[in-house]
Amino acid sequence: MPSTPIAAAGVNATQPGVDTGAGYILHNWSTNYKTITVGPNDISFVTDPFSSSLAPASNSNSTANTASQVMQINYPKGSYSPKAGPVAGGTSFYAIPFGDDTPFEKMMISYDVAFPNGFNWVLGGKLPGIYGGHPHSCSGGNQSTGDNCVTMRLMWRQDGGGEVYSYIPVSDNSDFCKNPNVLCNDQYGKSIGRGLLYFPPGTWTRIDMVMQLNEPAGYNNGILDVYINGLKSISMNTIPYRTTGMVGFQGLMFSTFFGGNTPDYATPVDTSVFFRNVQLSVGEPAKLYEGNGGSAAGGKIVGSRATLESLVFSVFAVFLGVFFA
């Protein structure tokens, strides 16, 4: 985190400089295409307004409140889904700290999030997560076909409830969608564990979301574990992340806004959410192979990466590390 506050870019900024919140991210995070896709004017760094509230450290690489400055994301009054709303709000960008051409078999996204007291949850909103395959492809109603992309984000719902919001290749009549902890629709993402997560306002909440690819591809044996303040809240081992061995977990999808894509999701007031201690951790690089049979069924290996033995570094608020099962 920066040592001093950094203001947002301002409503007229199209090329944010390094002295703005968006510019700081562009110069210090490995963002795809050096671009903030949505909301460069809504990113700033401010003194921690919840400094007396320390979320539990969840692993050896995590330290609560390592800097006095935290990321503030603004959501202007009337804003909701960036593609649909009359006012842009929140932010969206992708980051590839481990390289654009390196998919991984296992990934963990971790961060602290804090909602102010009195936060109006409306109907819900998106929180950061991870992506695999092609960026920008699995969101906003663009579905996963199993061979193009995958995304796994968090989402807040009414009254501070939460869930995992996923774009994965499943149909509404699949066995996966019949799970009582899964809600599916054919237009947008699949909701996993709705109501099993909770974000209390006025304090920091630590999130750790761990994912492992289904292997062989096409099998329903992918793993998802979600921890809130170090306590496991969601655990599933039936996730179909992909149908072909050419898809793996790729990088950070920092996506947050009110929505839903209808006006009833819009925030009625100017408001903000705060983030700190953002971490992205990966296991071994995924073996790439054609088809859905997997290496266990003789799939054709078309590429792989050498095993990562040690890779731990820091990019302002993002602490990056490698962990192995």
TrEMBL record:
Domain Polysaccharide lyase residue range list: 64-278
Entry keyword annotation includes Signal: no
Domain of life: Eukaryota
InterPro entries: Polysacc_lyase_14 (IPR048958)
Keyword vocabulary terms for this entry: Lyase
One Gene Ontology term of the molecular function aspect: lyase activity
PANTHER family in the record: DISAGGREGATASE RELATED REPEAT PROTEIN, PTHR40124
Name of the featured protein: Polysaccharide lyase family 14 protein
